[in-house]
Specification:
Helix content is 26%, strand content 22%. By secondary structure, it is of the alpha+beta class.
Amino acid sequence: MTTSQDELLAGTRRALLRRVAVAQAEGRAPSLVAAVVRGGRAVWHGARSMVDGHVPDERVQYRIGSITKTFTAVLVLRLRDEGVLDLGDPLEKHLPGTGVGEVTVAELLAHSGGLAAETPGPWWERTPGALRPGLGDVLGERPVAHPAGRRHHYSNPGYAVLGALVEELRGASWEEVLRREVLEPLGLDRTSVRAQSPAAGGWAVHPWADVMMAEPTEDYGPMAPAGQLWSTTGDLARFAAFLVRGDDRVLSEESLREMRTAAAPSETADLAVGAGYGLGLQIQHQDGRLLVGHSGSVPGFLANLTIGVADDVAAVVLANCTSGPTLSQVGADLVRIVAEAEPRIPEPWRPLKEVERSLLELAGPWYWGTSASVLRVTADGLLSLAPLSGGGRRSRFRPNGDGTWTGLEGYFAGEPLRAVRRPDGTVDHLDVGSFVFTREPYDETAAVPGGVDPEGWRGIG
């Protein structure tokens, strides 16, 4: 991925730089670096630093904290796609003896397994991982805080468990598996478990005075899969592009779409602000825009990766301070600035190379009772069912190869769609999860549940 400063308009670049400058100044960050990705590649890099003439570039490493969790989630999804595990499997099936074996893999990924937020004992992010040499030390005597599956409760130990699961099933260290299966294929040569020069130092900035103190940099041991990685804006820009488009060497676009789909019950407060969690990715609805990604913080560092999927714009923001600027807001603002100043230009419309006549037969308006919907054949080979106007149930459907289709989202996610035909081969109705859709409202010639009044439609005289 190359970085070009010329692909964005001058006004857009200035607005991006100003947002970064305000964040660094008002947040009192020793340094703050950012990158913007559009169309699958980095198109802007900006940085501000407390040291004149020494501005970090896109190859300087910062610790990225919990963005590490997204990398770990990719490794787990790879195991699922290979058939090594199922997301519904209880942990005990693959990693016995943890004491939390009834929690499923999916619940661990979505932070809905009820595990405690932190490890027992001293603050794990500021103490050596040698204090927690095994999973028993990470989980402690009371590892469960809530009933599994009932609520989203962020758990750092949960991702340590997922890292151990990867090690068990791959027969190699989490670090080695990550390097071999994700970092090398995606060309992320500046992402590592331990710092590689050039790397920023981590600082704590005094809350009431403009002075600083160096933060310790610890090796987290078994907790590494939850938050140890170091990376750069250049590498995370590549990773952001991958999270949208996929790479068959690592993970398919379909599996990444699954990661971006809400998978955990949200707290009431999260619902109020439009926040959710998928499989290793945070989800945020903000100002009418759907954003996905992850934030990260460890002593001395803050990090954020934000993707506006519909806008095809992503932002990476890194800072070397324990607290200060709210990088999730900075990332969202960088996405918004580009999306509003230079809206995405759609690809030219092109007709399909070919389409089955049986699909064209299904396309067009359908009625569930008196509610009008339309079924469309999409350019990516799917079917799309949506209300003819206004809100209502809508979903895309993927083909199953046997003449039936399966819903991908919304009310009809996982539900079957099939065309029910008459003896002469013509379509009588669509059956969508037992709902009957007919060509006319309560079509008297179709098999409508409960039948159709023989007097038909009439007015009141």
